[in-house]
């Protein structure tokens, strides 16, 4: 069923009884040409592009919970392409370009809001780093704007400009960045994949990977064995666990990241703002809640909930940047499990095992990558060749000595 203004009007006159389910609930078949493990944003996008762009017909996505129950439905919805390093910037810009046409492509409202992101800086060295990043963006053809303190003061008078320790000196603006409704992204890709014949199998946990003579033959699941030609792993925070089923030891650690939302307020913050003296980021949802988060909790875990010490730290950062926040009530907090890579950058790669492909290492920034990740992973699985935008994201970069250390934090996943 195609969504349109006409369909809305028609359904309104029919008491909204004619809407059909957005996707089918098929039983798993005995064999698929391609199986994707993980019904998060990346797995669903991969299946969608495999079917739509690369003409692969017999595809299943296996999800242990319900579609979108992982990080794709837990993130703070920020979409941007303001990266520094050549391994990352073209990839994320490719992603942003896909975002810009995604709603028409999917025939689904993912509520993309290009309200702009402003990264604040608070000292000279920080300013120089932001100028460098802005210049690197321009070199890739991506517009960036340096804002001085006076301009920012007019735009966002509620910020704490004269904090004794962290005075705000300025900010770097990417106007095309913004937010998208995270659940809608999962639902839009799921519906799109289903329309192209992909079987979306929910409540089907992969518990083993069967290999014969070093070649992947299929997966053991909570609903029995399912054979496949090719297998793509897009399990985000559970990547190490799933990888281990095929004997892969991966440069990934799983860490917890929390997010928060306040009670609804009248429109007050019209950009995404990030704090340069810490790692705090905030935006306002369409319902009026302030959505914010900060660093990962700092220890390895598979629990989808965080600890109170981090809650306190996040609140301190928030109030340091916006003192008025202290008068707003926090409504909810939640957490997701991050697949932190050793250089803070993602992996889209074949593996040493025939027919086994890997998509992981998104750290706390994989939502914005969803369309490009799906497209590039589908390209790799279908054609056996790396997509040019993802050419630096191979797994063997760690062996070859080509990490993409975007944050300059070294091989310390908990620092990225
Ligand atoms: C609090 C928080 C804030 C974030 N903020 C941002 C942000 O503002 N911007 C941004 O770009 N990124 C952000 N991220 C990161 C982003 O959400 C993730 O990098 C991205 O969603 C990961 O890819 P995914 O959507 O495929 O993951 P997921 O949605 O986690 O999908 C993986 C799926 O695999 C399934 N799975 C795992 N093991 C198995 C198995 N054995 N069998 C079957 N299925 C399995 C899981 O159930 C899950 O549904 C944030 C993340 C969190 C938690």
UniProtKB/TrEMBL annotation:
Gene Ontology terms for molecular function: sarcosine oxidase activity
A Pfam cross-reference name: DAO
E.C. numbers: 1.5.3.24
Co-factor requirement: FAD; FMN
Compartmental location: Cytoplasm
Keywords assigned: Cytoplasm, FAD, Flavoprotein, FMN, Nucleotide-binding, Oxidoreductase
Reaction it catalyzes: sarcosine + (6S)-5,6,7,8-tetrahydrofolate + O2 = (6R)-5,10-methylene-5,6,7,8-tetrahydrofolate + glycine + H2O2; sarcosine + O2 + H2O = formaldehyde + glycine + H2O2
Residues covered by the Rhodanese domain: 34-78
PANTHER family documented for this protein: FAD-DEPENDENT OXIDOREDUCTASE DOMAIN-CONTAINING PROTEIN 1, SARCOSINE DEHYDROGENASE-RELATED
Family: Belongs to the SoxB family.
Record's protein name: Sarcosine oxidase subunit beta
